[in-house]
Amino acid sequence: MADAPLTPDRILEAAEDALRRFGPAKANVVDVARALNVSHGSVYRHFPSKAALRGAVAERWLARLAEPLAEIAAERGPAQPRLRRWLDALCDAKQSRARDEPELFTTYYQLALEADEVVRAHVNALAVQLGEIIADGVGRGDFTVADPFRTGRAVFDATSRFHNPAHLAEWNDPEIKTDFEGVWLLILSGLGVPR
Questions:
Q1: Spatial separation of the C-alpha atoms in residues 15 and 37, rounded to whole Å
Q2: pLDDT 10s digits, 170-183
Q3: SS3 for 108-127, per residue?
Q4: Which of 87, 92, 80, 91 is nearest to 189 (CA)?
Q5: Mutual orientation of helices 79-100 and 50-74 as an angle, nearest 10°?
Q6: Can you give the pTM of this predicted structure?
Q7: Domains and CATH numbers, the chain
Q8: Cα gap 11→41, rounded to integer Å
Q9: For residues 18 and 31, is the Cβ–Cβ distance under 8 A?
Q10: What angle is formed at CA 41 by the lines to CA 17 and CA 24, rounded to 5 degrees?
């Protein structure tokens, strides 16, 4: 049986495996090529540099995080519970991955730090999803804000302590859920939700 054709997806899977095995400091293109039984030049035909390959791995990881959030944003129905589910899903995804696979999470976080443009696009896409939920809420009369998309970005920024890996050390704080509830009430107030 012939080997499967070399595709970007196969290369990314092998790169993820190499990162798991060797960590971001030691994993290299030769490790990826060896795992695929190809030359490193074959890998470079799909990804022009080690940085491009690592950026693609980070992008793939962030896309997996964003997919369920996009589904929540696309749902119809009352905006307030949808907004809360979206925020809970984001925070839970990041915090549970950090807790369950700390070494792998740290690896992906390091890759994301190297892939500035990828992260910026990811954050912007998430802020747009929040803006869509808020705009839907404005249309339904659930929220009263003038600029739903600017507000979406503000909500994303206001909750960053609970989902941005830069705050990883704070996620084990026993008061983190209580702190989130305080921010949630502030968000609802800012959205014009009556008490």
A1: 13
A2: 999 999 999 999 99
A3: HHHHHHHCHHHHHHHHHHHH
A4: 80
A5: 140
A6: 0.86
A7: 1-48 (1.10.10.60), 55-190 (1.10.357.10)
A8: 12
A9: yes
A10: 30
